[in-house]
């Protein structure tokens, strides 16, 4: 009998349930972060998701059905939880940010967290694009379709190309995209490890 077909021990089951519970907790924290004025819930959601990955890595691969549930939960967490974390990263970049000439960065976030370009005009549809980007990225990673991730990034970049005239807008676009993609990857990584 191969290891992947061996029955699960009590410790394996407990670890997999811990991963599942951690992702549920991270989802709750991410939903709280969407309404919170504090960065705390968003940062906690990221930390709990990272803890879920570490626990999944300690558990190892197994063909149990829990990986499917963890995968679905990971897609939901990636999609809904990415906005607060992306906003935290963008605000952090703006706080100490300097543009290429050494003056303070001029880009800012709106009251709703949507990205702005340097002249103050809102990038329309940014939140919806972020949801779609994370949903498609998480699904592609779970399906093993890494080329699809590249296509998502390419379509997003081509779609926004004409709106990114200033260095500050381009920088925010890159930082926001990388934060969003990183969150999507982190959110589904426990499922990738458990399958």
Automatic annotation (TrEMBL):
Transmembrane region(s): 13-33, 40-60, 66-90, 135-153, 173-194
Instruction: Report keywords, A-Z.
Output: Membrane, Transmembrane, Transmembrane helix
Name of this protein: Uncharacterized protein
């Amino acid at each position: 009998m191969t290891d992947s077909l061996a029955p699960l021990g009590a410790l394996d089951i407990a670890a997999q349930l811990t991963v599942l519970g951690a992702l549920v907790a991270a989802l709750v924290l991410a939903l709280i972060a969407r309404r919170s004025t504090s960065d705390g819930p968003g940062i906690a959601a990221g930390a709990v998701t990272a803890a879920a990955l570490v626990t999944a890595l300690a558990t190892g691969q197994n063909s149990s059905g829990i990986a499917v549930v963890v995968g679905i939960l990971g897609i939901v967490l990636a999609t809904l939880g990415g906005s607060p974390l992306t906003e935290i990263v963008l605000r952090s970049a703006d706080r100490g940010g300097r543009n290429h000439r050494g003056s303070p960065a001029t880009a800012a976030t709106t009251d709703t967290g949507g990205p702005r370009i340097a002249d103050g005009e809102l990038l329309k549809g940014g939140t919806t694009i972020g949801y779609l980007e994370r949903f498609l990225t998480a699904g592609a990673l779970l399906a093993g379709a890494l080329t699809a991730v590249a296509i998502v990034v390419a379509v997003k970049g081509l779609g926004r190309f004409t709106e990114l005239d200033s260095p500050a807008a381009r920088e925010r676009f890159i930082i926001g995209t990388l934060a969003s993609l990183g969150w999507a990857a982190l959110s589904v990584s426990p499922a990738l490890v458990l399958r």
